[in-house]
């Protein structure tokens, strides 16, 4: 019954939302920890789909990150098993990414700051499946228009290289190079711009350009 203690007083609507969250917020990261280190560490609780260390404008770590698991159960296991376990000499602070509930699954990285709710607070908007569901409907149409799918990338391309290249069309929010089970690039990526205009500019101006010896293809992300 220990687990219920953290959820008491939240109401069943909030619980339903929390039980669908697959991402966790990880704080107190040493600045030297890269996303690869974070991903390896967080794998102890389950299958990590991706790990992001949030960076400032200079490309330096802000000391927190978001880790997305394959299932909500794994995200909850991470909160229980890895709480205050050290990484790089510092005890990590881990909680469910409640911003993901408020954003309808968009995750904290869709907003510039980590959730300020702290541990044990209900999701924003008073929780309730309905509140989050309503926001989900509003957010969803905007997001795909800001994302593009990039293919035919050289295997050696790192996300930092791609981000620099794609920046020519507009302000890039994040880059995710898809990897196989062996951790190697699949030669394709999702790039999200700060605005839909940036994504459209990338399709218009960067498609079929040569990047590290290959002509890359850029189209709307239709997922």
Automatic annotation (TrEMBL):
SMART domains xrefs: RRM (SM00360)
A Pfam short name: RRM_1
Keywords assigned by UniProt, alphabetized: RNA-binding
Top-level taxon of the source organism: Eukaryota
InterPro entries on file: Nucleotide-bd_a/b_plait_sf (IPR012677), RBD_domain_sf (IPR035979), RRM_dom (IPR000504), RRT5_SRSF_SR (IPR050374)
Composition bias type Gly residues, residue spans: 123-136
Record-level Gene Ontology MF annotations: mRNA binding
One Gene Ontology term, aspect cellular component: cytoplasm
Spans annotated as Disordered: 114-143
Location of the RRM domain: 22-99, 146-223
Protein's name according to its UniProt entry: RRM domain-containing protein
